[in-house]
Write a structure and sequence with these properties.
Layout: E1 4-12, E2 17-21, H1 27-42, E3 52-58, E4 76-81, E5 84-89, H2 92-105, E6 106-107, E7 114-122, E8 130-134, H3 143-155, E9 160-164, E10 188-191, E11 194-197
Parallel strand pairs: 2-3, 3-5, 8-9
Antiparallel strand pairs: 1-7, 4-5, 4-7, 6-7, 10-11
């Protein structure tokens, strides 16, 4: 739940949305814009003539956004002006997190999607918000699943992911991670180059 949110009405997205990244629009800001576009496209929400505009900008383009010092690192402001929803961040992280809130303000799919207009000011209470994922006791997930997990965590504004492997992996570039022929932490035996748990 954002720290400050004031609902200002609903609007059917009959014509979808148009997403605009205001200059200076760097690589990270473009990433946030593309992330929003891809998410809405998956939901069948695309822009056409008469679409609601979603504008992504930095505070340099919108100094009236009134950012306090505690907001600058990862905070954002969302405001409604006419038929435009403007998302402002002082940092790339703040703009990205603002985009994640915009996704939540849009309910439904395709032609039945509705935008819940709102003015929002938000910033995190904690600098680090993370997940410790113990992979050492199996099953070890695929790289594709871990990428999906990181994308999901980012959508919930989680900014730290710490996979824990113990001594289950041995890397040629770092042999001290797991000494050859040995396993630690739970009584395992080496099988095929990795540590495998042994049932007693």
């Amino acid at each position: 739940m954002p720290r400050e949110i004031h609902a200002t009405g609903d609007e059917a997205l009959t014509h979808g949305v148009g997403i605009f990244c205001v200059a200076p629009c760097g690589v990270e800001d473009r990433f946030a814009a593309d992330d929003l576009a891809a998410s809405l496209k998956e939901r069948g929400i695309v822009g056409s003539a008469g679409a609601v505009a979603i504008e992504l900008a930095r505070t340099s383009a919108h100094p009236e956004a009134k950012f306090t010092d505690e907001m600058k690192a990862e905070g954002y402001v969302i405001t409604k002006t006419g038929n435009t929803l403007t998302v402002v961040g002082d940092s790339a992280a703040g703009l990205f997190y603002g985009v994640q809130t915009v996704k939540q303000l849009i309910e439904g799919d395709g032609g039945r999607a509705v935008l819940h207009w709102a003015n929002v000011r938000d910033w995190p209470a904690m600098k680090y918000r993370g997940l410790d994922d113990d992979l050492s006791r199996g099953p070890v997930t695929t790289l594709e699943f871990q990428k999906h997990l990181i994308r999901t965590l980012a959508a919930y504004k989680v900014n730290l992911y710490s996979p824990y492997f113990e001594h289950t992996q041995q890397y040629p570039s770092n042999p001290l991670m797991a000494p050859p022929g040995e396993c630690f932490g739970g009584g395992g035996q080496r099988a095929g180059g990795v540590c495998a748990a042994v049932s007693h």
